[in-house]
Amino acid sequence: MKQRILFVCHGNICRSTMAEFVMKYLVKQAGREDEFEIASAATSREEIGHDTHYGTKEKLREKGVPFTKRRAVQMTKQDYHYYDLIVAMDKENLWGIRRIIGEDRLGKVRLLLSYDGEPEGEVADPWYTGDFEATYVDVLRGCTKLLEWCKNEK
Fold first, then answer.
1. Using CA atoms, how far apart are residues 123 and 146, in angstroms rounded to an integer?
2. Are strands 85-88 and 3-9 parallel, antiparallel or unpaired?
3. Do 4 and 28 touch, CB atoms closer than 8 A?
4. Residue 134's CB: how many other CB atoms inside 10 A?
5. Any idea which residues carry the catalytic annotation?
6. pTM of the prediction?
7. How many CB atoms are located within 10 Å of the residue 60 CB?
8. Domain range holding 80?
9. Structural domain tally of the chain?
10. CA dist 40 to 29, 79, 117, 152, 154, Å?
11. Which letter, b or e, does each residue of 41-50 get, where b requires 16 or more Cβ atoms within 10 Å of its Cβ?
12. Tell me, what CATH number does 145's domain have?
């Protein structure tokens, strides 16, 4: 049975898509593609239908992380039941997720950096900071630790 992971940020064009593609890349590098289903979504409707932000694409190209054309989507209440883990980029996203799903009764929702021992750690939004490198560093660190965590949970 595949581990289903949904990465979530505000618009689903910068951080969550970066995390989706980085995690897919790490999983492929580990030879574990058949063990995971990985996607991303937004808490808002602002960017629905838009492709990944050009700054995210540029950073992924620079780092050699493959990506595909996609369209931003909004998370739904049904996603909570479908995915095993819902991984937020910051506390505002946690609030947005809970607004969509209600209470996290199954304990599926966590911050990405919590997998790296930072329970309150947030991935900065490059839409506002313009610093896609800092976002990439945090996303890579969080996804690497998340992949380790998934291995240990089996």
1. 14
2. parallel
3. no
4. 13
5. 9, 15, 125
6. 0.97
7. 20
8. 3-153
9. 1
10. 20, 10, 22, 23, 23
11. bbbbeebeee
12. 3.40.50.2300
